[in-house]
Amino acid sequence: MDIEIAGEAAGRLLFELFTDICPKTSKNFEDLCTGVQGLSQSGFPLCYKGSLFHRVVPGGWVQGGDISPERKGNGDESFAISHSKRGMLGMANKGPHRNGSQFYITLQPTMWMDRTYVAFGQMVEGVDVLKRLEEVPTCNDRPKYECKVTDCGTRLLTKKQTNSEQYKPAAVMYAKLLFAAAVAALMCAPATSDSDGCSALVSCDSCLQNGECLWVNCTASSFGCRSVLLLPANETCSNATCSAENSSILTPTVSASPTASQPLTTPNTPAVTTASNSSSPQPTTAVATNTSITAVSPTPAPQKNSTFDAASFIGGIVLVLGLQAVIFFLYKFCKSKERNYHTL
């Protein structure tokens, strides 16, 4: 689409049409660019060639294509494409299902147009031309200088010119919001783990400084710093002093005091031999210390298993979607007055 401003050639606007999403609207625009429809019943040429850009809204859009004022208009085909950036091409209308020949090009993101006006393409070339159209002096949004379409037509875009990945269909945006909500709900869902934080404490002193940890020797291969809340119910442990920290005991052991002490003789007393009970201990195993032996039993507590709380997950999703719905409603409500003042 070649543009002329105040009798001077300004350059060319090149658009990419989203024929996969809005095939009917794109076909209508193509026909008006090529003029294949000929003349209307009233004798108006059904072509954009020679038409004017009759409206320029600073910070909003430029509008043109007023060639057939008697047409009733076509239906709103799709609102899937969002007016999310500068250079979006859409069809102006006078109400629902009243799309005619007039089109507009956005000068900035105009999200309030979503679900009201049909966007069906985007500008891929002509940034400087659109800038010149935007800067044309106006009076009541009417350009003071004539901005005319001197020639127009269609052609196939090269892969380099195609810019489809940059447009943002509303469905894609909603899918991203749903994905973000699911991730947020998953992160917020309470999931517990049976990891033992005490086992990371390799020093006895640092273990005893933590009120929830004990330096123990259990019947299984579990020697060192452990949390008694996370020990299996069928496992018995005995408290071990820090003197056993460097011990090589890594398996369950049976403790006993020396079976016999050496005879003690003095000039005044006879030799006395002492012996300890050599019987095996009960299932609770104790480790010999230089002071005392204390049996430690795990404190009964509910086991912490790795679980997925489906109810919390679904509740999180519902909460996030509810917040999004409220924000969307408030956004549309706040933009309602702006939509009334800025009609195409």
What does this entry look like structurally?
This protein is of the alpha+beta class. Among the domains are: 2-168, Cyclophilin; 213-256 and 282-300, no CATH class. It is built from 6 helices and 15 strands. A hairpin with a 4-residue loop joins β12 (213-218) and β13. It is elongated and about 100 Å long. Residues 70-75, 164-169, 190-195, 244-296, 298-307 and 336-344 have low confidence and may be disordered. Pfam families: MGC-24, Pro_isomerase. It is found in: Membrane. It is a single-pass type I membrane protein. This is Putative peptidyl-prolyl cis-trans isomerase-like 6-like.
Summing up helix and strand content along with how strands pair, one would put the structural category as alpha+beta
Instruction: Summarize model confidence as the mean pLDDT.
Output: 70
Widest sheet: strand ordering: 3-8-6-7-5-4
Strand portion: 15-25%
The helical percent reads 10-25%
- In the CATH hierarchy, what is the superfamily of the domain at 2-168? Cyclophilin-like
Number of strands: 15
**CATH C-level class of the domain at 2-168:** Mainly Beta
> Count the helices. How many?
6
User: Could you name the ranges where pLDDT drops below 50 across 5 or more consecutive residues?
Assistant: 70-75, 164-169, 190-195, 244-296, 298-307, 336-344
What about the largest sheet? 6 strands, antiparallel
Helix-strand string? EEEHEEEEEHEEEHHEEEEHH
**Spatial shape:** elongated
Instruction: State the separation between the terminal residues, measured CA to CA.
Output: 21 Å
Rg over CA atoms = 41 Å
Q: Architecture of the domain at 2-168 in CATH?
A: Beta Barrel
Oligomer: single chain
Which fold name is given in CATH as the topology of the domain at 2-168?
Cyclophilin
